[in-house]
Here is the input.
Amino acid sequence: MPSKSKSKKPSHEAFVVTGEGETAFWTKIGAAWPNEDGKGFNVELTAFPVSGRMVIRERREKES
Here is the structure.
Protein backbone atom coordinates (compact mmCIF):
# COMPACT_ATOMS: atom_id res chain seq x y z
CA MET A 1 0.00 0.00 0.00
CA PRO A 2 1.25 3.47 -0.76
CA SER A 3 2.22 5.73 2.09
CA LYS A 4 0.13 8.74 3.07
CA SER A 5 0.89 11.93 1.25
CA LYS A 6 -0.85 15.29 1.36
CA SER A 7 -1.87 14.90 -2.31
CA LYS A 8 -3.74 11.62 -1.76
CA LYS A 9 -7.29 11.51 -0.48
CA PRO A 10 -7.85 9.73 2.83
CA SER A 11 -9.45 6.29 2.75
CA HIS A 12 -11.54 6.95 5.90
CA GLU A 13 -13.17 9.86 7.73
CA ALA A 14 -13.37 10.37 11.49
CA PHE A 15 -16.56 11.56 13.19
CA VAL A 16 -17.74 12.19 16.73
CA VAL A 17 -21.27 10.85 17.19
CA THR A 18 -23.67 11.91 19.93
CA GLY A 19 -27.06 10.32 20.41
CA GLU A 20 -28.41 7.10 18.98
CA GLY A 21 -30.23 5.91 15.87
CA GLU A 22 -32.20 8.39 13.75
CA THR A 23 -31.51 11.25 16.16
CA ALA A 24 -27.72 10.78 16.26
CA PHE A 25 -25.66 13.85 15.39
CA TRP A 26 -22.47 13.21 13.36
CA THR A 27 -19.67 15.80 13.27
CA LYS A 28 -16.67 15.24 10.99
CA ILE A 29 -13.46 15.74 12.96
CA GLY A 30 -10.73 14.30 10.75
CA ALA A 31 -9.48 11.69 8.32
CA ALA A 32 -7.40 8.50 8.19
CA TRP A 33 -4.94 6.90 5.77
CA PRO A 34 -3.73 3.29 5.86
CA ASN A 35 -0.18 2.68 7.07
CA GLU A 36 2.31 1.56 4.47
CA ASP A 37 2.36 -1.98 5.96
CA GLY A 38 -1.46 -2.17 5.94
CA LYS A 39 -1.64 -2.96 9.68
CA GLY A 40 -3.01 0.34 10.95
CA PHE A 41 -3.94 3.92 10.14
CA ASN A 42 -2.53 7.40 10.44
CA VAL A 43 -5.30 9.61 11.82
CA GLU A 44 -5.32 13.39 11.47
CA LEU A 45 -7.88 15.16 13.68
CA THR A 46 -9.05 18.77 13.29
CA ALA A 47 -10.90 18.56 16.62
CA PHE A 48 -10.69 16.33 19.68
CA PRO A 49 -14.00 15.09 21.13
CA VAL A 50 -14.61 15.49 24.85
CA SER A 51 -17.84 13.49 24.78
CA GLY A 52 -19.71 11.14 22.45
CA ARG A 53 -17.97 8.35 20.58
CA MET A 54 -15.45 8.51 17.76
CA VAL A 55 -16.36 6.56 14.63
CA ILE A 56 -14.04 6.00 11.67
CA ARG A 57 -15.84 5.11 8.44
CA GLU A 58 -14.74 4.42 4.87
CA ARG A 59 -14.75 7.63 2.87
CA ARG A 60 -17.53 7.98 0.31
CA GLU A 61 -17.38 10.24 -2.71
CA LYS A 62 -20.07 12.92 -2.64
CA GLU A 63 -22.83 12.37 -5.17
CA SER A 64 -23.46 15.21 -7.63
In short: The beta strands are 12-18, 25-34, 41-45, 53-58. Residues 1-5 have pLDDT under 50 and may be disordered.
